[in-house]
Task: structure prediction
Amino acid sequence: MIPSKEDWDLRYGIRFSNEVWGMLVRVAKEEQMTLPAVIREAVDAYLSGGARRGRSFDLRAAIGIPKVDSRSKYSPDFERFWDGVPTKVGKGAAWKAWKLALKDADAEVIIAGLPGYVSYEVRRRATCKSDYRPLHPSTWLNGCRWEDEVEVFGGGAKTDWDAVSSEEGGAF
Result:
């Protein structure tokens, strides 16, 4: 059983910030280690690194939490989805909507709905002309639009707008 932060502070006299405490507890649960073992590992890593007063210490790295690279912020499935969307706007909002959408459907099911999204956007562009406002990917995801029954023209999705526009009979 993992003690509360307050119990730990009182019992051992070691105070951790809420963020650090949360990390330590999370690692203990994920790695199926005792909390003291995780703390010992972090402290050993800190001391073996020649810790000096005033020197910063990356606790996440010391206890084995990999640094999140901003380039790998998005999952591979989301990147596949993003590659297929016709309007590449609001990637951060789409990422949030993607994570929520995965509670309702599998990534493959959502990605399989992209041809309908592309076809829908092509038709809207062709008919709305000057009033056209693109359907943002986050809106498409939040509305579970992969479930829509949209006729896909040309037998499949096209993401090259010039090629699609010439198939429809003119430029947008």
The chain has two domains: 5-62, 71-168. Residues 5-62 form one domain. The two ends are 64 Å apart (CA to CA). Residues 114-128 form the longest helix (15 residues).
